[in-house]
């Protein structure tokens, strides 16, 4: 009998919830680079939480390099020079802006990871993926939850590769992927994605590395064509 993996239930603190909403506003440029954030009291009223909770979230944003605090003047969204590269520890949230680069990276990186996974997938791995696919099919009318499920599906394939560098790469860019996946699913929906996911799982189950690579490549290329249409 195959037992599906159980995800530990997590308690998400108020400051973490506020932090995620603030990061989303920065990524979407609702709060653009160099702009001044509302005061702590205004943020407290906006989010309906205490000023202590707001202060904790702001401190974490400073730690992530997303904002800077000016003594006596308040907090400002940081301005990042992307040309300085990843080695300068650019906050990954800013990389989400360049969707063409993300799609290009995903197309090449994930198709290779999928080919490796095809040679290492075990019975329980395939069962997990089919369970995830069933959940995605049931979430077609909830695009936010569908995006989260979609991200877990792709990460599960990375885990099946049993390649520590592939897995670590996913972990490093997980924040970029999360925001990107929500953008993709919001724009495209989930029908095409579920179609490709199904044939990818079939290829993984068959141990067919070339088909797994081909279908993952086509999956992301199709998203790329749709999202960049008219550019």
TrEMBL record:
Keywords: DNA-binding, Transcription, Transcription regulation. The keyword Signal does not apply. The keyword Transcription regulation applies. CDD domains: WHTH_GntR. InterPro entries: GntR_C (IPR011711), TF_FadR/GntR_C (IPR008920), Tscrpt_reg_HTH_GntR (IPR000524), WH-like_DNA-bd_sf (IPR036388), WH_DNA-bd_sf (IPR036390). Residues 12-80 form the HTH gntR-type domain. PANTHER family: TRANSCRIPTIONAL REGULATOR, GNTR FAMILY, UXU OPERON TRANSCRIPTIONAL REGULATOR. This is FadR family transcriptional regulator. The lineage of its organism: Bacteria, Bacillati, Bacillota, Clostridia, Eubacteriales.
């Amino acid at each position: 009998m195959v037992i599906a993996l159980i995800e530990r239930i997590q308690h998400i603190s108020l400051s973490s919830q506020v932090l995620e909403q603030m990061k989303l506003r920065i990524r979407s440029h609702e709060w653009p680079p160099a702009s001044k954030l509302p005061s702590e009291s205004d943020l407290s009223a906006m989010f309906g939480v205490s000023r202590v909770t707001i202060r904790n979230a702001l401190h974490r944003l400073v730690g992530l390099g997303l904002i800077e605090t000016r003594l006596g003047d308040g907090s400002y969204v940081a301005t990042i020079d992307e040309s300085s590269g990843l080695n300068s520890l650019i906050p990954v949230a800013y990389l989400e802006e360049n969707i063409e680069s993300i799609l290009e990276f995903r197309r090449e990186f994930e198709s290779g990871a999928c080919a490796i996974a095809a040679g290492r997938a075990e019975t329980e791995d395939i069962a997990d993926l089919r369970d995830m696919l069933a959940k995605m099919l049931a979430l077609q009318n909830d695009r936010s939850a569908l995006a989260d499920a979609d991200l877990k599906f792709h990460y599960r394939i990375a885990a099946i590769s049993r390649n520590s560098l592939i897995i670590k790469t996913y972990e490093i860019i997980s924040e970029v992927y999360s925001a990107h996946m929500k953008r993709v699913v919001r724009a495209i929906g989930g029908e095409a994605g579920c179609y490709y996911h199904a044939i990818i799982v079939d290829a993984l189950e068959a141990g067919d590395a070339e088909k797994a690579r081909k279908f993952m490549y086509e999956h992301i290329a199709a998203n790329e064509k749709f999202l960049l249409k008219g550019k």
